[in-house]
Amino acid sequence: MKIKTCLPEKRVANKDLAHGFEKEKFVKLERKLGILERRVADENESALDLAVAACLKHSSEDLNKVDYILYCTQSPEYFLPTTACILQQRLGLNVKNGALDVNLGCSGFVYCLSLAKGLIESKLASNVLIVTSDTYNKYIHEEDYTNRFIFGDAAAATILDKADAERLSSFDFGTDGTGAEDIIVRGTSFEKGDDRLNFFSMTGPKVFKFVKSFVPKSVDNVLVNAGVSTSDIKGFIFHQANQRMLETIADELEVEHEKVYARLKNVGNTVSASIPLVLEDVFTKEMASGKYLLSGFGVGYSWASCILDLDK
Fold this sequence. Notes:
Helix content: 25-40%
Strand order of the largest sheet: 1-7-6-4-5
Largest sheet: 5 strands, mixed
Structural class: alpha/beta
Number of helices: 10
Radius of gyration: 19 Å
Shape: globular
Distance between the termini: 12 Å
């Protein structure tokens, strides 16, 4: 599994948002979220621009082997056409590539891993390019300081081959559409005016309750299906929602906080790109061995978990 990422150049530190809060609330939020700064795409920089930049960090040899593109985003270039088709053209990849968009957020990377595994094991593809790219900040009202505090923009480009597909197992999926309105952008009329009802909206307490209720169960399902325990897992890589959320999941699973990896402090919650951003760190800093449990969850509600066994 080869992962390359791209973060926008623009940095927004907490102090740049501090005027939106009373001091006490600001300090409490900073401590709870574990975020000190985030990267934000420029006005004329799109999720596709970040995606292309991440992809082009791969060698031309690796890109030329790609025969299927899965582009996961909730920040598409257009209503239509499919952004994956534009990505194929921007990268100059073979026209024989399959290409499709996956409209999922924080669960999207794990979902795409399952799709890539299926494509490869059914011999419909040999090398799958998974691109996860989101620019949520473009949909957050400029005075919605709480959500601006949380989210960062980013892209990741992950290439999987047959050996990578064999390292993935014990997938667990879940969907609960009753939570659809708890993380939502109702329309695009914000392009024409200042109606905050049509910008990004998140009901934090309900989302927290959802995660606490469903994610530990999903993790347990994966462990049971794989016939392993938490002690067999080298590291837990969850969607990087916020530090408090990561610690709560760790407590529910009764695992050491140190085994739950975090990459939030300087990038924020990067939606579909958050898990590959952590994996990039793992592949860079650690010996590439052992079992890792991956779990994405959020908007939808949607969740997906699996095991990545680097010893296979």
